[in-house]
Amino acid sequence: MSERIRVAILMGGASSEREVSLVSGRAVMEAIDTARYNARPVDLGAVGSSVYSCPAAVSGVRGRAAAVREAPESIYNGAAVLAAELTDKQSLPDIVFIALHGRYGEDGTVQGMLELLGIPYTGSGVLASALAMDKIATKRVLESCEVPTPAWTSVTAWEYARGIVPDVADECGFPAIVKPNREGSTIGVTVVHSADGVRAAVEEALRHDTSVLIEKFVRGREITVGILGAHDLQMLPIVEIRPRTGFYDYEAKYTAGLTEKIVPAPLDEPVAARALRAAELTHRAIGCSGMSRVDLIVPENGEAPTVLEVNTIPGMTPTSLLPRAAQAAGIPFTDLISRIIECGVEEGAR
Ligand SMILES: Nc1ncnc2c1ncn2[C@@H]1O[C@H](COP(=O)(O)OP(=O)(O)O)[C@@H](O)[C@H]1O
Ligand SMILES: [Mg+2]
To answer: Which of 50, 149, 208, 225 would be a feasible disulfide site paired with 279, CB 3.0-4.6 Å?
Structure first.
């Protein structure tokens, strides 16, 4: 019997989506094909995350180094511990399955570390991961490829501190939606209906990031397109998302029964074809690998489906959107995991 491939499933982490990641990681651990893979879970939080939650006093340029010298055991270096864990001779993995969502996981940082360590991993590479996490950078790429995306403007913390507030009415129009540039799970997001609400919404978003995306709020149907592969892509059936509360926020995303998911989405054929085309162009333009899930709105005014964002590591439980779409395409959850690992193996050490 040939040796099974050793897989370290990386989960948890320190982002705001830590809990969601643990659920994904455990679901992958449970469903992985044990005849082919010898898997073990690695909780990035458990091996140390305080490099991110450093008290302000020790996070400055000098503060951190000084604190490490004075009391090394009190300042935990998560990345160093993770590197040691993954390169330990006894447990060296053949490939890392990254089941992390959000910053320090889905954003290219962990991918970069794995490249330095020479360990193959699942999903998109450094550039695609970083681009997709940055909603503003994503929109610039989409516009350069003529992929429809809602009208937008942006403001940084530096600008806002100097009294610069975008003219939303002029640049994208109301209602508008204000989001932290690099968050997920609808965290820090506010819909504003007039210029009066802009400042409070920007301040809320700035609590989560140093730059803010302000976008035209597009009324319509929300859909998402799962894609497998790097070059030879498999487009999965479109899923329509109908939040019962009217807004796809954190609660609607993660509370059972609050969101209706319809696969395949009941769309007219030309609309579906345009949505699939926009999603495929997005995946290719960003340079995604292994998998992605592109979120779109089908505007009620009949305009072309418009791309909101691309998720490079979407939720990975059997009832999450990408696995649901794969299921509808005849790919059970266990096979989906194998497909994602195979794609990572093909990419090799990057
Ligand atoms: N421009 C928009 N028009 C209408 N609804 C939007 C728009 N942008 C975001 N939303 C809503 O907010 C949710 C979260 O926004 P999204 O850009 O996907 O960020 P994330 O999922 O990373 O938090 C979407 O699923 C959608 O319901
Ligand atoms: Mg989204």
So the answer is: 225
Ligand 1 site, residue 123, Cβ cutoff 6 A: no
Q: How much distance in Å is there from the Cα of 163 to the middle of ligand 2?
A: 30
Clarify whether residues 262 and 324 are in a common domain: yes
Check if the beta carbon of residue 327 is closer than 8 Å to that of residue 339. Answer: no
The ligand placed nearest to the CA atom of residue 183 is 1
Return the residue whose CA atom lies nearest to atom 26 of ligand 1.
248
127 falls within a domain: no
CA 314 – ligand 2 centroid, Å: 9
pTM value? Answer: 0.92
Verify whether ligand 1 is closer than 6 Å to residue 184 (CB atom). yes
Question: Given the CA of residue 217, which atom of ligand 1 is nearest to it?
Answer: 3
Residue 312 alpha carbon to ligand 2 centre in Å: 11
**Dihedral of CA 24/29/30/35: which sign?**
positive
- State pLDDT tens for residues 267-321: 999 999 999 999 999 999 999 999 999 999 999 999 999 999 999 999 999 989 9
Does any ligand 1 atom lie closer than 6 A to the CB of residue 174? no
Residue 165 CA to residue 202 CA, distance in Å, equals 9
What's the CA gap between 47 and 138, in Å, rounded?
Answer: 32
The helix, strand and coil proportions of the chain, stated in percent and rounded to the nearest 5, come to 40, 20, 40
Read off the tokens for 269.
Answer: 């054929």
Rounded to the nearest whole angstrom, what is the distance from the C-alpha of residue 149 to the centroid of ligand 1?
Answer: 12
Same domain, 240 and 95: no
Q: What is the CATH number of the domain that holds 88?
A: 3.40.50.20
> How many residues are present in the chain?
350
Structural domain that includes position 45: 5-121
Task: Judge if 52 and 97 occupy the same domain.
Answer: yes
Q: Which residues contact 168 (CB under 8 A, 6 or more apart)?
A: 153, 174, 176, 192, 195, 198, 214
Instruction: Decide if 287 is inside a domain.
Output: yes
Please count the structural domains in the chain.
3
Q: Look up the CATH number of the domain holding residue 143.
A: 3.30.470.20
Q: Percentage of residues in the chain with pLDDT exceeding 70?
A: 89
Do 67 and 169 share a domain, yes or no?
A: no
Strand partners for 296: 223, 307
